[in-house]
Amino acid sequence: MSGTSRSRKPNSWPIPKAVTSKNYKETLALKDIDAVLIGSPDHWHVPLTIAACEAGKHVYVEKPLTHDLSEGKAVVDAQNTHKRIVQVGMQQRSMPHIIKAKELIKAGRIGKVVKVNMSWNRNANRVKRFPLGVKPDQVDWSMFLGGAKKQEFDEYRFRNWRWFWDFGGGIFTDLMVHWIDVAHWILEVDHPTQAVSLGEHINSKDVWETPDTVQTILAYPDGLQMHFEGTFTNARNGAMIEFMGTEATLYIDRGGYVIYPEWNKKGKTEELILGKEPTRRGADFYDEPNGELLHLTDWVNAMRDNKKPSAPAEAGVGSAGAAHLANLALRTGGVAKWMG
Question: What is the DSSP letter of 71?
Fold first, then answer.
């Protein structure tokens, strides 16, 4: 957790006289801090967000907002009860080409959307444990665990927490959340009704708990289906989302969009490409747009104007919920249905 203070105006970074603490409660107690940014492991997102709201701080919290389906109501209640501006780090909502893509879909440019395809594929070497140089006396392990089950210090889990169920949720919560949030936002849906998932350990066997190769099919009302695939063994398609409509398909990645008309429909290919480097489609990051800066700016403007940001807690709960349902299906070996 970090805080922003009105009274401290540094001229350079790092800040020589910055206040530091190993206890978040000490940070939240500082009266001259108006807002905090939470970049902790997933299992701390909701407890820290609730504590910050209760302390009167506005919050920017990285995705996924929740670590478990049961956490959603409490964090939304904290945001609303204390009237705080909570922005979840789903920065695609602030990218101009995705905002434009939303406008096109809402205007009927690709017809009725019947299916959504998403991917976040990477190609990595086989995952192995190796010494990281983190010693137990360097870490407040009890504080790191928080509400997670008690366990012996493990430097690998400490540094690679995303791939262990106590602290993260694997590819679905780490990567799919970005695109499922775009789909929820554009199509104005809240959560899937059911999920069917598969997962395998190809690169990470006996090292990670969460599989390194996954896919899920999510069902929504009115026959809408969404499919996501993610792997660390092949980078084909990279990171992208496609909205398949009756008139055309709209492809989006973090650097631009392309509309491909159906072969039997009139129309031309249309594109808006902002990111030039790297040039391949589906890259994790592009030179433009700077989504993180745009999303943080949206949060700051929301605080200044006392208005709802582009990704409030309610959106974070819904998008994380889809990933949790996918993981529930994965871990139970069947179909997971939304309850509630």
Answer: G
Identity of the amino acid at 133 = G
pLDDT at residue 6, as a whole number: 43
Give φ, ψ of 76 to 5 degrees. Answer: -65, -40
- Amino acid 230 reads G
Q: Which residues contact 333 (CB under 8 A, 6 or more apart)?
A: none
Grouping H, G, I as helix, E, B as strand and the rest as coil, residue 207 is coil
> What are the beta bridge partners of residue 120?
230, 239
pTM for this one?
A: 0.94
Describe the crossing of helices 313-332 and 72-81 by its angle, rounded to 10 degrees: 170
- Going by C-alpha positions, the residue among 212, 218, 211 that lies closest to residue 180 is 218
CA distance 318 to 2: 25
Dump pLDDT digits (tens) for 189-245.
999 999 999 999 999 999 999 999 999 999 999 999 999 999 999 999 999 999 999
Map residue 114 onto helix, strand or coil: strand
Q: Summarize pLDDT for 59-79 with one digit per residue, the tens.
A: 999 999 999 999 999 999 999
d(CA 234, CA 1) in angstroms, rounded, equals 34
Query: Which pLDDT score, from 0 to 100, does residue 7 have?
Result: 43
Angle between helices 177-187 and 313-332 (to 10 degrees): 120
> Residue 155: which of 182, 168, 137, 173 has the closest Cα?
137
CB 325 within 8 Å of CB 195:
yes
Q: Which residues of 229-246 are buried (b: 16+ CB within 10 A; e: fewer)?
A: bbbbeebebbbbbbbbbe
Report the pLDDT value the prediction gives residue 2, as an integer from 0 to 100. Answer: 54
Which conformational region is residue 146 in: left (phi greater than 0), alpha (psi within -120 to 50 degrees), or beta?
Answer: left
Omega before 278 cis (within 30°)?
A: yes
pLDDT at 13 over 90: no
d(CA 160, CA 60): 22
Q: Locate tokens 């660390």: which residue?
A: 232
